[in-house]
Specification:
Layout lengths: L4 E9 L8 E9 L6 H7 L8 E7 L2 E2 L2 E7 L9 E9 L8 E9 L2 H8 L3 H5 L8 E3 L10 E2 L6 H6 E7 L9 E6 L4
Amino acid sequence: MAELKLFMLVLGCSLEGRHTEQHDVFFGIGHHLRDLIPDMRAFWPEAKDKLHIDGYREVNFVDNHRIRVVEKKETLHQEMQLFFLNLGGYKPDEMEEFHYKILSVQKDIGASIRASKQTTFYKHTSFGEATSHVDDKYGVDVDDVHNVKDILPAHLKEKYTLEITPATDAIADPVHLGYFQLQHL
């Protein structure tokens, strides 16, 4: 059987009463992307049949570390953790808050925030009073950066955990962008 994988997805939908498409980030575990459909629907029930994927990646390598999904048999004592950060920033004369989603392997949330402030996005989307900041998926700032294992669907957190080990052979995970309808996965 195929190895279980951690997936990071950008979900989208056009909700009733909204003027623009809405987006959120979802993490799930499965053998294939289509295995995540029930959890995606449970995550965003208001989206109903308008839910789609705008981008996704398998999360195999982050910051020269291998990320593996393993059965939760006993607590893994590992120094490094996988964090998700949603950076928000502004550009002059553009009525938009731009976002940059990153994964970071660090010892703690503070280290992941410090590392995020070294990104090109953070440095180039600030001016005057419109400074870049760190958002979580709900628009709350820095206090709510997420450890990925904590935001997995509850039934997956009970069964699996993430094993994070140094990797000298790390390669960038491909990011798949486009409009992916759930019924065609």
